[in-house]
Amino acid sequence: MNARTPYLQIASSGVHGLGVFATQDLPEATLLGTYQGRRFSPEQLSRRRWDDSLTYLFSLSNGDTIDGSRGGNATRHINHSCAPNCEAVEEWDARGRLVLRIYALRPLCAGEEVFLDYGLIVDESYDATDYRCFCGAVSCRGSMVAPAGTSA
Ligand SMILES: [Zn+2]
């Protein structure tokens, strides 16, 4: 287990496959971890062929993409919810690199599953059934894709 995500624990989820759960009660705005993995520039990304690892890709606003399936930590298993209790925030780290940090949007209880709204930005030709959401929230959009008119 990655030492930098002490508040997170991976276990099977009621929503989808594996999920991530709070190990203890946590106050709002707690830093839960940094989304880690192999980094690709837009140029490197276009040269690669992607298969089923797509669900672990996180795109940053500077064009870089982080592939959590390679060298990632517990944060890559965080499931999507249309009513999330966490958010992913882009910040500059001490080395001047743009990173993605996961913060609690509200107080979390020990054992509570942690969710992000992926708000995926996808190609116009995407197949909506690939991104169907089953989070069960009252406000569920039925899709993990960002609502029209928003941008990450
Ligand atoms: Zn949903």
Automatic annotation (TrEMBL):
Sorted keywords for this record are: Chromosome, Methyltransferase, S-adenosyl-L-methionine, Transferase
Query: Which cell locations does it reside in?
Result: Chromosome
InterPro entries xref list: Post-SET_dom, SET2_Histone-Lys_MeTrsfase, SET_dom, SET_dom_sf
Limits of the SET domain: 6-119
Do the record's keywords include Methyltransferase? yes
What superkingdom heads the lineage? Answer: Bacteria
Q: Which Pfam families match?
A: SET
Identify the residues that the record assigns to the Post-SET domain, covering every copy.
Answer: 129-145
**ATP-binding among keywords:** no
Q: What is this protein called?
A: SET domain-containing protein-lysine N-methyltransferase
